[in-house]
């Protein structure tokens, strides 16, 4: 990655402490995850979240970046977390479940009880994982149409329904289920959020085979009972709680996509400098040079956007930033897909071969424009904030 990503000084540049932190994460990834070692840790790239690696990073305080010291965390800023996500994605760290865990951590920080914070945040600070389940077989972009229900019975919540596309539920200690607990005239009312342990009776987790592997799951809840205190926040306030977390979610996904984009760019650039055709490195051909010039410019732009919105969130965690957060998600994920596609084109057959990582970058990048709100949904939100 270029040194421009590590500039010191005011504004959107990094502080000395953040500069050193980024360096530490970068050096750790370079040392610990060379291609042959990474293949071993991930079982041939089939398991992209290593609990052993997560535990080691937790010992360094990196899993507790947005968790208060009183709960076992390191008390860092949201910008620190964005920097960590970018670097670990760029460094190919096998902690695929961390991003979704961080999304749930944000919800707990805002709405969790003291007991929930001590239990669940403490687990994350030690390297544990959490997941969130929103989508259903007939409810995707239209989250408010979900049907999974939870009812109070004898001091417990009993949940019934199905969830789709629950990333890393199989690695999480608890899954935050977005469900209906009240009947209401508006589909945005009567929703709540309830924590369900992964090993709860009545919960079945089934992996979904996808282009990128088996990172996501289908959930079935049949008379799944959990204690009454598993409710997060206020009953019936689930939609508002979801909206309050969108700044965090979209910056988290954007920062991860930015790291992936930079990795694809860097690998393609190294190849273009070494690969020779017609008597010279292919990077000396103007057609290739222009691709890199355009992508390098977009990487710089997106990096500034990610850091800017992360800083705005740190300044006022309660402030809603629908336009800016959607811009982050849209720009970063589309850039990740473009960098991987251009990287494959530049590398030709070597980019397409499974022996090299570019095809994995492409498979990983494609889904980023879908999960967490598709690119089309982000454009809708941005247009709405413009009064359209």
Account of the protein in words:
About 45% of the residues are buried. It contains 13 helices and 10 strands. The chain has helices spanning about 15-30, 35-40, 50-60, 80-90, 100-110, 115-125, 240-245, 245-275, 285-315, 320-345, 350, 360-370, 375-385; strands spanning about 130-135, 150-155, 155-165, 175-180, 190-195, 205-210, 215-225, 230, 275, 280. The chain folds into 3 domains: about 5-130, Acyl-CoA dehydrogenase/oxidase, N-terminal domain (Butyryl-Coa Dehydrogenase, subunit A, domain 1), CATH 1.10.540; about 130-235, Butyryl-CoA Dehydrogenase, subunit A, domain 2; about 245-385, Butyryl-CoA Dehydrogenase, subunit A, domain 3. With about 400 residues, the chain is an alpha+beta fold. The model has no long low-confidence stretch (mean pLDDT about 95). Helix 4 (about 80-90) packs antiparallel against helix 9 (about 285-315). The strands form 3 sheets. It has a 4-stranded mixed β-sheet with strand order 1-4-5-8. Strands 2-3-7-6 form a 4-stranded antiparallel β-sheet, with no helix packed on it. A two-stranded antiparallel sheet has the order 9-10. Helices cover about 50% and strands about 15% of the residues. A hairpin with a 2-residue loop joins strand 2 and strand 3 (about 155-165).
